[in-house]
């Protein structure tokens, strides 16, 4: 498409090239390419023909017609006048809702450095892998939630796909409680995260968690926990250093699955005591998964989120003699020994765990080298935002463990339901946002840091081959990934506010009333003179 100086896109691109954001590397402009009004190869009308349209509840052979960023029709043999309609042939391919990643950390300041992927580079990478929305974690500024939210509004200004926020709670006082209400009622926040690990920085104690759970319940916001026993992790780290174990393997040895199981069980029991739903982020071990399974079996509303690294990798990498290789696998909770990943896959396929995230939190090899002499200083985090959809399709659909409809449920729809934005997101239905992928089940790929779109110089899936490739990504009605070409524009992504009181809160008033009426009547004691 020819670019004329008066095209709005040309204008945006020129501004961007003249005044590049200091936080963007060369790769930002590398992704910008010719397009029209909305950036990217933007057609306001797109017809996807002949594919298998997959939703979480159903799949069918059908066409999908998109106008102005919204899906208008999903049915066989759609006919439209051919004026200005971009037609995509999806014969033999799957047409599915774009992925939604519930757990990312872009431009996050953490462990003395900042993640190498910011909102632009992380999202650009995500789009090439078929993810069209993510939910990132706002980290408060000195405990202040509103200041944290504003900082993340700034960080996300260059977004090229839709995104939402969870907000972390790192201290407790009246101001925090008030700000939680403000964020829920005015800013589209419906979830708050409590870190039970990272003693001395993000970690909260049980009294704070209890206050937070009560406040979440009253606001209809979902409480999320990073479940590891931070005090015991601290002790485990000291133990490793005393034993002279200072390399990346010390990371895994210092925080074994039992500490994840303990914290998961504790958070679940406290949420039960308060009677509020709970979401456990990055479930990495059988120990944690078993606690979630037990709670769900007893009727408690607990959501378990495994992440791709925990499902697919094992911890042998942490013992690699090359520090650069070993350190790239350092994340918390740690990647576990062989066996945990397959058990988590089984739990996902049977509904014990509900959705898949990435915990994309990337640091390059120079940043990881901050912990060359002490594993406690290796910035925690791995990549996955670009790889999640491909790896889950290849590992779980490709092996027959789950169906295409299950794939849509665990990578997109369930996230949209839990965070109360379904069916705007997470579905190919008339009226939904046009966030759509076309996946070719016969197309293959090899993952490498040489060709990935993240800014990191390493990739924890280096060399991995797979089948089932996202050939087209449509985000907000724009074709942003096609023919191996990424066409995105900084600033084109939208913040998606998420309303409180998702389906997880249904019936809560009745269960609270049942609890009250189940209490044995108090004793009316008559005071005598002696008492
Ligand atoms: O290692 C990790 N997971 N880094 C990101 C912060 C977190 O715990 O999610």
Q: Please report which band the strand proportion falls in: under 5%, 5-15%, 15-25%, 25-35%, 35-45% or over 45%.
A: 15-25%
Sum up the overall morphology in one term: globular
**Assembly context of the chains:** single chain
Binned, the helix content reads 25-40%
Cofactors and ligands: N-(aminocarbonyl)-beta-alanine
Number of helices: 17
Q: What is the CA-CA span between the terminal residues?
A: 91 Å
Number of strands: 19
How would you describe this protein?
The longest helix has 18 residues, at 257-274. Helix 5 (174-187) runs parallel beside helix 6. Strands 1, 2, 3, 4, 5, 6, 16, 17, 18 and 19 form a ten-stranded mixed β-sheet that branches. Strands 7-10-11-12-13-14-15 form a seven-stranded parallel β-sheet. The chain has a two-stranded antiparallel sheet with strand order 8-9. The N and C termini lie far apart (91 Å). It has helices at residues 8-18, 26-31, 119-128, 145-155, 174-187, 206-219, 230-242, 249-254, 257-274, 286-297, 308-312, 323-327, 340-349, 365-368, 388-397, 404-418, 508-518, and strands at residues 41-42, 45-54, 59-67, 70-75, 86-89, 94-97, 99-104, 109-110, 113-114, 131-138, 162-169, 191-195, 222-226, 278-280, 302-304, 436-446, 465-475, 478-482, 485-486. It is globular. Strand 12, helix 6 and strand 13 form a beta-alpha-beta unit. The chain is an alpha/beta fold and 531 residues long. The structure holds N-(aminocarbonyl)-beta-alanine (URP). N-(aminocarbonyl)-beta-alanine binds next to loops.
